[in-house]
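To whoever is on call:

I kicked off a structure prediction for a single chain this morning and the downstream step that reads the tokens threw a length-mismatch warning. I double-checked the sequence; it's 136 residues and nothing unusual in it as far as I can see. Pasting both halves so you can look.
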Amino acid sequence: MLLRSVPRLLSGLLLCLVAVLAGCAPTGGGTGPGTDVTAPSWAAGTPTVREADLPREARRTLALIDGGGPFPYARDGSVFRNFEGELPPQEPGHYREFTVRTPGERDRGARRVVTGRDGEVYYTDDHYDSFRAVLR
């Protein structure tokens, strides 16, 4: 009699395990560790970084951008011309650049946030040699 109930017991345990694991799967909407944040269409083909994973100074720059300033560097908010061609081509004036402070640097350093008129946000830590789309 006990041997007949073992397959049913195992089936029930397997169903419970599947249900538990399905509940732990990433949903695409979170930003915490282990979640899969879906990149917006403007970021297609560009490496990405979650805002929470940016250096503290970059997150501070984003907060200043969101709040409209004031910005610590005179060139913050100036037009970024994309001469390097690393960002998707857009009409002149589409992109703006903002300095991300680099501790220990006496000048502006190499880190920047570049924003687009349509809500795009990019981060570079190598003075425009490469960019990552910021997932917010």
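Update from on-call: the warning came from a stale cache, not from the record. Cleared it. Sanity check on the structure: Helices lie at 2-24, 56-67.
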